[in-house]
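New to this. Explain the following:
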Amino acid sequence: MTNATDGRPDETDPALPPTDRRQGAPPSRRTIAGYAIGSVGTGGFGTLPGLVLLYYLTDALAVPAALAGLVVTGAKVWDVVIDPAIGYATDRDLARRGSRRRLMTIGALTLPVFFALTFAVPAGTTGTAAALWVLVAFLLAATSFSLFQVPYIALPAEMVGSYDGRTRLLAWRVAVLALAILLFGAGGPALRGDGDSLTGYLVMGVVAGVTIGAGMLVTARTAPRTTPRAAAGGPLGAAPRGAVRDAVRGSVREAAGALRRSTPFRMLLVAFVLQAVAVGAMLAGAAYVATYVLDSESAVSLLFAALIAPALLVMPLWTRIARRTGKERGFVVATVLFTVATLGMVPLLWVPGPWVYAPTALAGIAYAGMQVLPLSMLPDVIAHDARVHRPGRGGAFSGVWTAGETTGMALGAGALSVVLGVTGFRPSTVDVDLVQPAAAIDGIVWSFSLLPAALVAGSLLALARYRLRREDIDGEDRQ
């Protein structure tokens, strides 16, 4: 509903959950816990494939690096197509059913099956055939993940009404996300073993898939229910039913509209995608750094511990920085710190050794801010658009956001695969131990240090044009 005099959303708008949407009301513990637990799933799916999938293809299934990169990138770029459509569909669900639960539940129930199948390539299948199996299974898993993730990202703008309240909600979500990344990043390779058996990969896929799906399902069942907007004559309620063509057109129109209308959204998205490419390259490169630079496959777990443990400890620090200086300024500080940390890893070229855990820990401190701050800025962007234009279109923003994030992570892995191919990396199977050329080792280090540093530094150009401030959010809500 809107106020007839000024076009602003009415305080009794049925699409806004009660209590936490009141101006200044902090999110309840139940709201925080129910929302945060979903990050067990998103952290697992975002971490484990990025960490082991490219390595699984090149070092267990003898898939050439260039083809392996196409598999990983192609399956994730699929999100560019489906995420805006899912965003449109979840907005329609909110209008017609009063909740975003339906798609979230479908994604949570189907993802464990497809995730396990990704790592269930039959014994003796290698090369192109193995790549095709992984591509199809991972594409289906990515679709299930998007069915959950797109509405999940849209929820904070509807659950909490204040600038600082959203920071608190997202801080706990990112704390759980960091813990999930640590558990999956260290536990996944541990379940797999030393990578010398396809059975180890299958066990990892089954256990991780079930855990991811369980976390998603809990949050899907706690997503708020409200009065359907369609019953109140909301803007999406009158849309034609069931026509695929209309749905496709609607999703494209809403996604393009979100990008066109909101300069803060465009700038925030560009910065976040560039950073996702950087993180994706590091995530995919960690197993290669452990195996070929540090000469220990188990070192990948230590790299993850060094990256994520500090992030868990400093999460409250970034929340305080956001309250004192603003989220956007805190985001800049975190970005600069991450750039410095990754540049500090360049000496791996000449002096590989355990000293790398120190700059990795510094990057972990910055990574915490690079997660919690933009994720808490996104619902501010959605709320601002709802005030200026109309409410009920959070799914359009979250669809584009999720597509950008997952594509960025995939492009990071793709960039690594290109570097590996150019520098002469040699693929192998689980029972073969190859010596890599020196150029390939150098390429692994560059992809883990200088490339991420350049990408993250470049994101500062977009952040400089992000103009939304605290008074633009809380000031509007007081009007």
In short: DSSP finds 17 helices and no strands in the chain. The longest helix spans residues 65-97.
